[in-house]
Hints:
By secondary structure, the chain is α/β, with parallel strands linked by helices. The chain folds into two domains: 4-139, 3-Layer(aba) Sandwich (Rossmann fold), CATH 3.40.50.2300; 145-193, no CATH class. It contains seven helices and seven strands, in the order E-H-E-H-E-H-E-H-E-H-E-E-H-H. A five-stranded parallel β-sheet has the order 2-1-3-4-5. Strands 6-7 form a two-stranded antiparallel sheet. Helix 3 (63-75) links the parallel strand 3 and strand 4. Helix 1 crosses helix 5 (112-142) and helix 2 (39-48) packs parallel to helix 3. The longest helix has 31 residues, at 112-142. The radius of gyration is 26 Å and the shape is elongated. The mean pLDDT is 84.
Amino acid sequence: MKPLNILVLKDNAIDVEKLRQMLSEDDSEAFCLEIADNIDDGIRLISQVEIDIILMDLTISKKLELEKFTKVYNSNQNIPIVILTGLYDRDTAIKALSIGAQDYLPPQNLSSEILTRTIRYALERNKIRIQLREAMDNIQILKGLLPICIKCKKVHNDEGSWQRIEAYLEQRSDLEFSQCLCSDCLREAQKKMI
C-alpha cells in the first residue's frame, strides 16, 4: 500500500517529531511526512510532490492566520487541510471550517488515535466534497435556456449547430438513452399498419 503523503506546515510550535511518533503508532497505514517551515515553501511542495493531506499549524485566533490558510487552500482545493492550533476561538474555528478546513485539533491534547482518525475522516469528507463539487458543476452545465426546434426537437448547442437532444444530453451528463415508443406513438403506428 502506498504511504499517505502528509505535508506538515509548521509556522509556530508544532512538534514534528511528536507527530511522526504518533503516526508511526498506527500499523494500518504508512505515512510519509513532508515538512515546510513557511507557507510559500509549502505551496511549492504541493506543486512538486503528490500530497494527500495537509496538517497546518496556525494560531487560529488571528485574522492573518486565516489569510495564510486561505492562501494554502486556494493553491489546491482538492487537498484536505487539518488545522492544528494551540488556541481555541470558536468563531474563527467555524470560519476556517466554512472556508474549507476539514478539521482543527489542539496539539497539546493530541493522541495517535485522534490524529490518525482525524486524518482518515478528513480524507473521506474531502472525497465527498470533491464529488459534490463535480455534481454541482454538472448541474451548472445543464442549467439555463436550451433552444429547441419545435418541429424536429433538435437543440442548438454551444458550438452553434443543431444536434439531437439525446446526443446533446449524453455529451453533458452521465445519461444514456434507449429507444422506445410511448403508448400514443405505438397506437398511432399500429393504426397505420392496419
